[in-house]
Amino acid sequence: MTSLSQKSKIRLAVIGVFVIAFLAANLNWISVWNGFAGSLNENIPSGIFGREFRQFEEVPHKLGLDLQGGTHLVYEADMSEIEYIDQDEALKGVRDVIERRVNLFGVAEPLVQTEVGAGHHRLIVELAGITDVAQAVAMIGETPYLEFKEEKTQEEQEIVLNEFSETQILIEDPYFKSTGLDGRMLKDAAVNFNQTTGQPEIIFELNNEGKQLFAEITKRSVGKKIAIYMDGIPISAPVVNEEIPNGEARITGDFSIGEAQELVRSLNAGALPVPIALISQQTVGATLGRISLEKSLRAGILGLILVIIFMIAYYRLPGVLASISLIVYGVLLLAAFKILSVTLTLAGIAGFILTIGMAVDANVLIFERMKEELKDKKSLKRSIEDGFKRAWSSIRDGNISTLITAVILYGVGVSFVKGFALTLTIGVLISIFTAVVFTRQMLLLLAGTRLKKVDWLWLKKKND
After folding, report:
1. Which residues of 41-74 are buried (b: 16+ CB within 10 A; e: fewer)?
2. pTM for the whole structure
């Protein structure tokens, strides 16, 4: 009874993985299902199944700059006027501003990263699929502009809104008006924690010119809002509780630590003059990207076929199961890329192909250990179990060292290196499951059938 229960568990585990792989395949190639469902809906009388077969919207894999085409821009930030201790935060602040600008420009999945080296502070901007490079360059190249605006009176708001209802053209902000207080007058902003509530809040300090102006603004705005704008976009609108004559203010609210830090970076980016200069521009055509993708996929498929042929020819039935596991691995990995919104690049595909070899390497270690166990006259099931146990330490150590390398590459690398590290990490994790867990379950399942008597299929030799 116990044996039957164990066999049932193994069978259910194998069936479960195949079901997951089937769903993942449908996610990867939903157009196949849509075509099949459309054909059924056309040829089968409506209502025979109660309703038509549903078709789903296809969400393609996200392709990076080198595959989709687009523009790669590198900017150098001038930190000559910034204190050394503030340079990293200033660069991050400018990065946040550029990300906001690029998103407004409508670029799908923009990538904006910082790179700090010996004597340079750079911003790397990748705009995949962009069509108007000149406009993007012009937009990114502007210095961040921070300004404080005060709330308009009810009468002033109604005038602007009435004009908008008549002309359908909004010529000015209907709710806030300029005060003349801008980022040049902001000395510093920082995150603080309220001693009573423990909640994060933002404190900022103005210079002498800003101090006097801010005192006048807060005096006439008690009970009203003062909005903080970055590049014409409101990023915060705190209410003034009292006049602030000393130029030191705090912004409170239901902030998370991350939100407070982001607001502080935005304030400092608009306050600190961090000019950026375009030092490199590289354009990748969509046609070139498509050719690169086709060649990469062709190389990956060819490599997969050759590996499968070798595994089956050398390891027989275990090689067949390892090949099935490898196909399931590829399907699951592609689905994971889509679910996790991983942007695929040529380097990322290289990481994907590398993990295929690592998955096969795990199976090779396991099968070689199985052969040793079979030589010791152990039963087939025991040889499978012991083979996996004794190969596991080598597989574990090899994959952990790879994961450590991938994490380091992702942490210190930029652009394509990060893509390689990310796909490598995801691939290693999934390959451990398919190569060690799934292959093992399939082997144990078949070891309980009549196939266990065919010695040639299980790497046994006549004199064993």
Report:
1. eeeeeeeeeeeeeeeeeeeeebbbbbbbbbbbbb
2. 0.63
